[in-house]
Amino acid sequence: MSDCDIPRESLGFLMQDVTRLLRKRFEGQAAALGLTSAQWRLLVNLMRHGPLPQARLAELLEIEPISLSRLVDRMAEAGWVERRPDPNDRRIRIVHATDQTRAQIGAARHIADSIYAEALAGLPPDASETMTAMLRRMICNLSQPTETDHDR
């Protein structure tokens, strides 16, 4: 597809389109592992941060706690994660990666990396680093509280 085939859209629309296409491509390829993109995001957070309370995982994934609970239910049934009680507060359930996750995370990472390489094909070699730095800056900019945030 050339630039001529892509409508001139705003940055937000283009970012959403890229995200949608990355997710669709990942889900098509990761289906062999039995992973969705939402499950992949959960596993990446567990591997990055270690075992986490369900409430914290919901925050990190920016989903409602009930949606996270359903996601964890499906992943526990499939053997990707397990819930354990918090030793200090029995109301809290901690989500842990399983041996299956540790064994398969490399295969899932390979799928993600190959999709990113495909997405970046034809761009200058340093484009990935530049784009990543720009997106990080945008995240930092938009993560700062604004005056309207205080009114909520």
**Largest β sheet strand count, sense and barrel closure:** 3 strands, antiparallel
Number of helices: 7
The general outline is globular
CATH class descriptor: Mainly Alpha
Strand content: 5-15%
Q: What is the CATH superfamily?
A: Winged helix-like DNA-binding domain superfamily/Winged helix DNA-binding domain
Spatial sequence of strands, sheet with the most strands: 1-3-2
Short note summarizing the structure:
The chain has 152 residues and is mainly alpha-helical. It is built from seven helices and three strands, in the order ααβααββααα.
Structure description:
The chain is mainly alpha-helical. The chain has one domain (about 25-140): Winged helix-like DNA-binding domain superfamily/Winged helix DNA-binding domain (Arc Repressor Mutant, subunit A, Orthogonal Bundle). Helix content is about 65%, strand content about 10%. It has a 3-stranded antiparallel beta sheet with strand order 1-3-2. A hairpin with a 2-residue loop joins strand 2 and strand 3. Helix 2 crosses helix 5 (about 100-120). It is globular. The model has no long low-confidence stretch (mean pLDDT about 90).
SSE arrangement:
Elements: H1 11-30, H2 37-49, E1 52-53, H3 54-61, H4 65-77, E2 81-86, E3 89-97, H5 99-120, H6 127-143, H7 147-150
Antiparallel strand pairs: 1-3, 2-3
Keywords:
152 residues, mainly alpha, Arc Repressor Mutant, subunit A, 3-stranded antiparallel β-sheet, 64% helix
